[in-house]
Amino acid sequence: MAIIALVSAKGSPGVTTSALAAALSWHRRLVLAECDPAGGSILAGYLGGALDGPRGIGELAVGELRDGNLETAFWSQLVDLDAPKRERLLLPGVLDPAQAGSVSPLWQRFADFFTGLERGVPPYDVLADCGRLQVGGPPWPVLRAAAIVLLVTRAHLPDLSATRSTIRAIQRDLTEHRVPPGTLRLLVVGDGHGTSEISKALGLPVIARLPDDPRTAEVLSLGGTVRSGRPLMRAAGALEVPVRALLDRRRARLAWPGAVQPREVTAPTTPGVSGAV
């Protein structure tokens, strides 16, 4: 399914929580990539820091700038969220915002590599947590390469107001870079204005709505046992259905990406991914 990017306008509407909930519920092989320049939070939060050393996109960036070894180093930087199955993998984000300086010049390189994972052996989808756009060095190349961009927003007026300007910024950038239309959708979190009201006001379809579920959100943020029957996990598990349906419709309409096939990326067959949980 290529790249599915999640991004927000401002504040904390729940991009990382939504992305992690979806990743833990996904039915296809998946890499959850923390591409937020402000820093990743899953290692220290959900995984409780239980790793045997530095890992993630910051380490990949340093190695790529020094040795150009992204293809070989990528798999060693992942964390198996459901070890040892290697079906739900995490690429942790930068540990320190200062690392973002090493990552920013490589966003296009990472975007191209992520795109190739869909046709790898075995294939992987990529959920890219791109954080807030209003930070230094946002990962625009990842958004442009995404098959679908989900703009995460809460349903209250201040959030919707900020989201409106972000919609314009994303649409302007995607148009300037000749990305086919129909990429952008809203993912609404929590109570507030109605779904149809939000869609009409912002001029953009709502692909799904995730409920407020403080107990599950706390587990996903701070660690603990994720219960699949909780409201947030059920809704996140159902998100894959409209995402896949939208992607199928876009590909049928645009005959994309059949004309140009991304380069394949082969996952290692020997154990190279450590499980932290």
From TrEMBL:
InterPro entries, alphabetized: P-loop_NTPase
Name of the featured protein: ParA family protein
Species lineage: Bacteria, Bacillati, Actinomycetota, Actinomycetes, Micromonosporales
